[in-house]
Amino acid sequence: MSAISWAIVGPVLLLMVGALVLYLWLVGRAILAMLRSGVSGVLLTFAFLALVPLPVLVVMGIAVLFIWHFHREDILTRAAGTP
Fold first, then answer.
1. Closest by alpha carbon to 2, among 10, 11, 13?
2. Which of 11, 38, 40, 61 is most buried (CB neighbours < 10 A)?
3. Per-residue pLDDT tens digits for 4-59
C-alpha cells in the first residue's frame, strides 16, 4: 500500500514544487522589470506580496503577471511613439 501511494504522491509533489519554482521565477523576473521601468508602487506592492506562497496570494500573483504583461506592452508602445 505504501509503494502505491508514493508512486502517485511522488510525481504529483514533484510537479507542484516545479510549478511553484516556475511561478516564483516568473514573478521575480516581473518584479525586476517593474523596478527597471518605474511602474506604479501599487503594482509593485502586490507583486512583492505575490512572492509569499499562499494559495490566495498565488492566484493574486497570476493576476499581477497578467496585468504586468499588458501594462508592459502599453509602456513599450508609448516609448515607440505609436498610438
1. 10
2. 61
3. 788 888 899 999 999 999 999 999 999 999 999 988 899 999 999 999 999 999 99
Helices 2-37/41-49 angle, 10° precision: 160
- Taking the C-alpha atoms of residue 81 and residue 65, their distance in angstroms, rounded to an integer, is 24
Q: HSE-up of 74 (CA within 13 Å, CB side)?
A: 8
Tally of residues, the chain: 83
Running DSSP on this structure, what letter comes out for residue 22?
H
Cα–Cα distance for residue pair 41/63, rounded to 1 Å: 16
Residue 1, CA atoms < 13 Å, CB-side half-sphere: 0
CB 56 within 8 A of CB 46: no
